[in-house]
Amino acid sequence: MTAINSPSYIGRFAPTPSGHLHFGSLVAALASYLDARSVGGRWLLRMEDLDPPREEPGAQAAILHALESYGFEWDGAMVRQSERHDAYAQVLDRLFQQGLAYACTCSRKQLEPYAGIYPGLCRNLGHAREGAAIRLRVPELEYHFEDRVQGPFRQHLGREVGDFIIRRRDGLYAYQLAVVLDDAWQGVTDIVRGADLLDSTPRQLYLQELLGLAQPRYLHVPLITQPDGHKLGKSYRSPPLTRDQATPLLLRALRALGQNPGTDLGDASPGELLAWGTRHWNAALIPRTPALPEAQLR
Ligand code: GLU
Ligand code: ZN
User: Fold this and answer.
1) Quick check: CB of 16 below 6 Å from ligand 1?
2) Tag placement on the chain: N or C end, fewer CB within 10 Å?
3) Is the dihedral of CA 205, 11, 266, 63 positive or negative?
4) Which CATH architecture has domain 10-84+183-297?
């Protein structure tokens, strides 16, 4: 693999500070880092702090501390989504004025029977924006892309998603809008993240198309799951990434990604493991599955 400087690759890690990083986050961070660094690319850090009510106090500092103690070095200053509201507002206004987005006043209870797929009730009612959620009209089209690990992925936006929220009723911007605008603004060429976001990707492709933005390449790594099949999270054996666990957890994360660090690396420092991973990175070895039970990796 060539390691010459390739500014044509810009990757990123984009944690949400709703809690500390856990082993699943480490796998995603490591994959995006190694995929970028192995081709001499840039690696950015973006704090996705769009939702203050769900932010855990101290989580941002804990995330930065964990990344640093696991040897990760990012390029440039970290970007916070909480500082990008003007950019989101501008695009939202435009979409609204163009009739591509509309205000929705439906209550949660009203939408209960529709199993998460918005049936378009407010589409043509011309509600005012104040105090309403803003939804993006989706086309009756299937969107598809070729994921570098998971292969072809397709989703019919009208039938499987429906018009989706880009700004919540409480005024908070939605992840789908912010992520697309920020990835484009930061020039991100390659998105490497957990497979729980596979089914968000078609919505993001549609937004990119609508806004005339370049489409990045996508690589979704297996989601590390609990015994009950859920994403690893606060509830089950997912302690914070402490410094004293850095070497064993980085080794386990490398193996979860199909890489083969030798047993001689058992005493390596985090920096040495990241350097080894960068030299030996082979994305073709990543397991082609959307989910990996954590218990299998011990
Ligand atoms: N902030 C998202 C999360 O923590 C990741 C967004 C992305 O990688 O697109 O799940
Ligand atoms: Zn509605």
Assistant:
1) yes
2) C
3) negative
4) 3-Layer(aba) Sandwich (3.40)
